[in-house]
Design goal:
The strands form 4 sheets. The protein has a 9-stranded mixed beta sheet with strand order 9-10-8-11-12-13-14-15-16, with helices on both faces. A 6-stranded mixed beta sheet has the order 17-18-22-19-20-21, with helices on both faces. Strands 2-7-6-5-4 form a 5-stranded mixed beta sheet. By secondary structure, the chain is of the alpha/beta class. It folds into 3 domains: about 80 residues, Udp-n-acetylmuramoylalanyl-d-glutamate--2,6- Diaminopimelate Ligase, Chain: A, domain 1, CATH 3.40.1390.10; about 210 residues, UDP-N-acetylmuramoyl-L-alanine:D-glutamate ligase; about 150 residues, Mur ligase, C-terminal domain (Protein-Tyrosine Phosphatase, Chain A, Alpha-Beta Complex).
């Protein structure tokens, strides 16, 4: 495989002055001195907590081919080669991203939505890779530095490019979409997320619709036909001159869900794609994942790819870490199942996680256990949205509920006495209580916003209970 960037092309794009001797080719782009590899260009970006200029020397010693630094910090940086840019390295990275997009002939899809972005991106990467060289972010790189970083890493020979674009406030998606210039823009759904920063749900939908601002001519908006804000999104898409392709369970959807048979480790899915029936197995369970898979097939159709080949590749899909990945763990003489949804949470994704618990089958004498923590950025609706989960837990037939955080105390008060496991203000207080309560056959789902720190609890469970296969072999 050829190098990502030739040095001359790279220097022209970033608009800087080279000091020292640089290699003729650059293997990749990095913004993290801890993971930089030989031959990569290191951009000394200033973040909320760290300034990359403080780690230039470490990056160069680790083998970075060169470092991109800002003029105002040049005197504080030791080592060469460096490329000195007049403004700052993030602006230089953005210029490189624009150059990468300009040279690319790839079909580009960008994904946004209140829920399901990262899983959809993972499915797009997997499915499109079955029909051509595909580039996608290595993690949930969906913000003002993650998007240009992913775009700057786009190889010239790529057939398909997949990008995730997120937001917390209005105005954040539009400039990123204009940088990516997608041929297809997927909005997975619009739900009550980041409501603290918006006056209404309609305002959230408008913010998501900013993804249409960068669509290429004759581009398509790929929209969830089942969403309550579908008509509003269609209007915004048409204002942008976009074609509209729909997906969902609605019978009028262009790509519609015809049948779904859930399994413990996946789903059997039947889909109508513009009149053609496509059947495939999705490698992770959950109706929400199956719905998002429809947007993948819609994208494949838009790009003229072999839809059936894309669909068949989705059997290898696994839920991303912290977003529904499952772990079968040894517990005494049996096993328990941990469903890790700890990455983040909002009302829609919380309901989807509880649905996973409902669909799960506990082992002999096992229970359905929900471990839930506070959902953030919900503003004045926070109390109501937390209490509303009581109905979902009842529908899921949860046997025991463990809650963490001040907001979850409102849900705790609404739970029936017989399902109350324990409540704690902080994760550390809950950990020993939960560990003592777990038993063979249990299915446990863990879900909360990142600030609650339930990811630490997941690590503790996995540390206490080893993987079942490893335990069986020992």
């Amino acid at each position: 495989m050829s190098a990502l960037w030739e040095a001359g092309e790279f220097l022209a794009a970033v608009g800087g002055q080279l000091e020292g001797a640089a290699p003729a080719e650059l293997a990749d782009i990095s913004i993290d001195s801890r993971s930089v590899r030989p031959g990569e260009a290191f951009f000394a970006i200033k973040g909320d907590r760290f300034d990359g200029h403080d780690f230039v020397d470490a990056a160069l010693k680790a083998g970075a081919a060169l470092a991109v630094v800002g003029q105002e910090r040049r005197d504080s940086v030791e080592g060469e080669p460096v490329v000195v840019v007049p403004d700052d390295p993030l602006a230089a990275l953005e210029r490189l991203a624009v150059a990468a997009r300009k040279r690319s002939e790839a079909k580009i899809v960008a994904v946004t939505g209140s829920v399901g972005k990262t899983g959809t991106v993972s499915m797009l990467r997997l499915g499109l890779s079955a029909v051509g060289p595909t580039h996608a972010p290595v993690a949930s790189f969906n913000n003002h530095w993650g998007v240009p970083l992913t775009l700057a890493r786009l190889p010239a020979e790529t057939a398909f490019g997949v990008f995730e674009i997120g937001m917390n406030h209005a105005g954040e998606i539009s400039p990123l979409s204009k940088m990516v210039r997608p041929h297809g823009a997927v909005i997975t759904t619009v739900e009550a997320v980041h409501t603290e920063f918006f006056e209404s749900m309609e305002a959230i939908a408008d913010a998501k619709a900013e993804i249409f601002d960068g669509l290429e001519r004759d581009g398509a908006a790929i929209l969830n036909r089942d969403n309550a804000y579908f008509d509003q999104l269609v209007a915004r898409a048409k204002d942008a001159g976009a074609r509209v392709i729909t997906f969902g369970e609605h019978p009028d959807a262009d790509v519609s869900l015809v049948g779904l048979m859930g399994e413990s480790e996946g789903s059997r899915v039947t889909v109508d794609v513009f009149g053609d029936t496509v059947q495939f197995r999705l490698g992770a369970p959950g109706r929400h994942l199956a719905r998002n898979a429809l947007s993948v097939l819609a994208t494949a159709y838009l790009f003229g790819a072999d839809v059936k080949s894309v669909a068949l590749a989705l059997e290898e899909f696994k839920a991303p870490p912290g977003r529904g990945d499952r772990h079968v763990l040894a517990c005494d003489e049996g096993t328990l199942t941990l469903i890790d949804e700890s990455y983040n949470a909002n009302p829609a994704s919380m309901q989807a996680a509880i649905q996973l618990l409902k669909d799960a089958k506990p082992g002999k004498n096992g229970r359905r256990i929900a471990v839930l923590g506070d959902m953030g950025e919900l503003g004045q609706q926070a109390g109501e949205l937390h209490r509303a989960l009581a109905a979902d837990l009842a529908d899921a037939k949860a046997d025991a509920v463990f809650l963490v955080g001040p907001l979850m105390h409102q849900l705790w008060e609404d739970l029936p006495e017989e399902v109350r496991g324990a409540y704690a203000k902080e994760t550390g207080e809950l950990e020993p209580i939960l560990m003592e309560a777990l038993q063979p056959g249990d299915v446990i789902v863990v879900k909360a916003s990142n600030a609650t720190g339930l990811g630490r609890l997941v690590k503790a469970i996995k540390s206490r209970f080893p993987p079942a296969r490893a335990a069986d072999e020992s």
